[in-house]
């Protein structure tokens, strides 16, 4: 069973997340302040850590410094709209972030995606008639190779790992380009267009009005 540590001082949020993740079969431990979080991290090995930023005793950034050398994947829980927190978190090596308040379903999808990403080395993703080798970074469609740029490839993986989730433009952009999203939609939109064309995926990559994009189920 995979073990998740939740470091979050809002106990109601921590407990809600714990309850939902445990319903999905994860084993969860809650720490309600940074000090207790550090104690758990010292004593136990976790598969993933959900880390709030503003915490009593020791804040999330400090804890992250401590976690990074261990290689445990981290998802930051940030306050809604706190752009600086997201940038700082990503720069310092958080693997992902989710803004509060969040939908529990989205959090679970992120947790699963990150665990998949970190879990296996020889990983092949298959979606509809497209096969992706994340190690050699090659893509084929119905057996024929498809040439993608690096950013197109990263975008494709991000979409597949979050299938059926409506992804905000800003989040997609920041994940794939690793820099703050300044509101210019053209770069992302043109990459999406090219992916749709190269994979013939108009029916799978949906535009979500005022949000961004969603990859429809390919079954
Ligand atoms: Ca907090």
* Ligands and ions found: calcium ion
- % residues in beta strands: 15-25%
Low-confidence stretches: none
Order of helices and strands: EHEHEHEHEHEEEEHEHHEE
Q: What is the number of strand segments?
A: 12
Q: Return the CATH topology of the largest domain.
A: Rossmann fold
Structural class: alpha/beta
Number of domains: 2
Write a brief caption for the model.
The chain has 219 residues and is of the alpha/beta class. The protein contains 8 helices and 12 strands.
Would you mind describing this structure in some detail?
The protein is an alpha/beta fold and 219 residues long. It folds into 2 domains: 3-117, Response regulator (Rossmann fold, 3-Layer(aba) Sandwich), CATH 3.40.50.2300; 124-215, Winged helix-like DNA-binding domain superfamily/Winged helix DNA-binding domain (Arc Repressor Mutant, subunit A, Orthogonal Bundle). Helices cover 42% and strands 23% of the residues. The chain has 8 helices and 12 strands. The chain has helices at 11-23, 34-43, 60-67, 83-91, 104-119, 150-161, 169-177, 186-199, and strands at residues 3-7, 27-31, 48-52, 74-79, 96-100, 124-127, 130-133, 138-141, 144-146, 167-168, 205-208, 212-215. The strands form 3 sheets. A 5-stranded parallel β-sheet has the order 2-1-3-4-5, sandwiched between helices. Strands 6-7-8-9 form a 4-stranded antiparallel β-sheet, with helices on one face. α2 runs parallel beside α3 and α6 (150-161) packs across α7. The model has no long low-confidence stretch (mean pLDDT 89). The structure holds calcium ion. Calcium ion (CA) is lined by residues 9-10, 52, 54-55.
